[in-house]
Amino acid sequence: MADLKHWEGESLSVWCAQWGVPVLEAHDELGSTNDRLKEILGQGADHFSVVIAESQSAGRGRQGEVWHSPPGSGLWMSVLVPASRASVTSLPLIVGLAAARAVERVAPGIEAGIEWPNDVMVGGKKVAGVLCEAASGSSAGSGEGVVAGIGINVRTPAGGFALDIVSRATSLETDVVAPVSRAALAGAVLAELKRASDPGGLTLSPEALVDLNCRDVLCGQRVHTEQEGNGIARGIVESGALLLERDDGTRVGVVAGSVRLA
Fold first, then answer.
1. Within a domain: 196
2. How far apart are CA 139 and CA 135, in angstroms?
3. For residue 98, is pLDDT > 50?
4. Which terminus of the chain is more solvent-facing, meaning fewer CB atoms within 10 Å of its CB: N or C?
5. 27 phi and psi, to 5 degrees?
6. What's 190's domain CATH number?
7. Same domain, yes or no, for 179 and 235?
8. Does residue 1 belong to any structural domain of this protein?
9. Which residue has the higher pLDDT, 215 or 40?
10. pLDDT value at position 136?
11. Which residue has the higher pLDDT, 125 or 165?
């Protein structure tokens, strides 16, 4: 694990001041940025502390899935976000929406969708994912903290995407002409996360809920849910649950497990 003093052409102190974050670490390689952020929480890291890695050897997604994060091809970052127990279901969506908005800000022309509960989609393929984990040992001064891992594919790796994801993965620079600045992308993600934060933590505001439903790529599709079986996805509700309409016409909220097209 090599600590970096500079990242994307500037010293870390410059980015720390520019983004308004209390702690910023950058590394050449880590097992996982989430794991590293958890390690430093007991050292006084406060909300919006950030860890970035050029690559991860053990990056992960939901339900233990591997997150491929080869050197220099993406933004692999973790942020300590303020959260309450009431926001557990909606938190991955709030972070995913922040990533989607950030993507559109730094890569004009891209339209980013959300696939419940935590994937950012471009052109029907996954460009980013989110993993939220409990921040045990947090000493953050106000409220509870959750470690939000965010992985965004900025450019296609030199050897191409791994075989197990090549059919369903894409990168920002696949769809735009100009190079995408990872520093601008990181700053935009942090700005959107702060925009979603209030004294009680990250909040799914009415405006954000409308935006999520506009971006919802599953709405109207027949899906299979691990928790509630098959049905038609009918949008995202205030709690962050996916609304599922069963074949008998009843509706139920899906709050956990995987969802895929049926």
1. yes
2. 9
3. yes
4. N
5. -135, 150
6. 3.30.930.10
7. no
8. no
9. 215
10. 67
11. 125
Domain assignment of residue 147, yes or no: yes
pLDDT value of position 2: 58
- Give the whole-angstrom CA distance, residue 72 versus residue 124: 24
Structural domain including 58 reads 6-215
Mean pLDDT of 226-249: 96
Q: Are residues 22 and 97 in the same domain?
A: yes
Torsion of CA 21, 25, 31, 32, to 10 degrees: 0
Are 98 and 179 in the same domain?
yes
Inside any domain, residue 46: yes
Task: State CA 244 to chain mean position distance.
Answer: 23
Q: Domain with 238 in it: what CATH number?
A: 2.30.30
pLDDT tens-digit readout, 104-143: 999 989 999 999 999 999 999 999 999 999 876 544 444 5
Co-location of 138 and 62 in the same domain: yes
* Averaged confidence pLDDT in the chain: 89
Into how many domains does the chain fold?
2
Count CB-CB contacts under 10 A for residue 158.
Answer: 9
The span from the CA of 96 to the CA of 152, in Å, is: 10
Answer yes or no: do 180 and 248 share one domain. no
Q: Which two tokens stand for residue 127?
A: 């460009």
